[in-house]
Amino acid sequence: MRGGEVTLEAILELVPGARLLTLVHVPGSVTPRIEAHRPQPSFVQRLPLARTRYRQYLPLFPAAIEQIDLDDVELVISTSHCAAKAVVPTGRTRHLCYCFTPMRYAWDQFDAYFGPARVGALRSRLYGLALRRLARWDAATADRVDRYVAISRYVAGRIDRYYNRTADVIEPPVDTSFYSPDGSPPGDYFIIVSALVPYKRVDLAIDACRLAGVPLRVVGGGPEAGPLRRRAGPGVEFIEHCSRGELRGLYRGARAFLLTGEEDFGIAPVEAQACGRPVIALARGGARETVEHGVTGLLVPESSAEAFAAAIRLLADLECDAAQLRRSAARFARPLFQERMRAAIEALADC
Predict the structure, then answer these.
(1) How far, in whole angstroms, is CA 140 from its chain's centroid?
(2) CATH of 3-173+334-349, one of 3.30.1380, 1.10.3470, 1.10.287, 3.40.50
(3) 334 backbone φψ class: left, alpha, beta (φ>0; ψ -120 to 50)
(4) For the segment 193-245, what is each residue's pLDDT rounded down to a tens digit?
(5) What are the residues whose beta carbons fall under 8 Å from the beta carbon of 300, sequence distance 6 or more?
């Protein structure tokens, strides 16, 4: 499960009778607990190839989200990294948005998704026109939310900057009861667990491990899988799908976790810490809130393969205590998340 699904499942446990509305739903792509809520998709679901190429319909997302019928709803909880926060509530409806981030590609990461180097100069200009319009819509609809809750202080800052709204911070849930050490010594490989999309910068992890002469395991899939496989050498193993138990085993067997992109929070690095493994992360974004430099891992000041390779070599001199790593991860345990989210929901519902 990706981080958004982990969070959604934890929220649904707090509101078991809730209707689950979404832009697109691919049956079988989420957990049975989420499927049990019978997700109701928007009209985008009926468009050609929407289940596999839904990103192509991004310009239609505002219309789709605004057509969702909330006439009989008293409380809306949106989990949003794109358009969900812009649903149109009735006058009596209260709306809490659990915000993963204001949409990256419309605000400050356009080049990573749609820059000339990625899609060509002409398409980049066309995308630029569409996404500038989308950014204006995103800002204009910010006041449809009564209360924002951000996944990190970093995201709360983005909400303030782009929406001119304040946000409380409740970090996403990590299943620290499941992700735990087994006492085994670390192996020789490094691991990255990520959707294979541009801003995750998995290419840096591949290049850094090649420079440092260490093996790498890449867990995850996405549109960048093909280019990344072509870039990788014999020391890189790609694992597109694995069970939770297999993932836990991969964490336990790793030397360390690599986080080469700028994350809004980053659940996977915390799962690795819960399994007693340190993290080497770019010193930006949410990693600054989850990784303590020199204690639970290393923060890399520069986004380059050379800087990450140097950190990989330095890790040999870092003595990371598994108990300390577990304590660090325990700050984000699932029960704590649910306790804080329940309080936020009840406080808004009582207003």
Answers:
(1) 24
(2) 3.40.50
(3) alpha
(4) 999 988 899 999 999 999 999 999 999 998 899 999 999 989 999 999 899 99
(5) 280, 281, 282, 283, 307, 308, 311
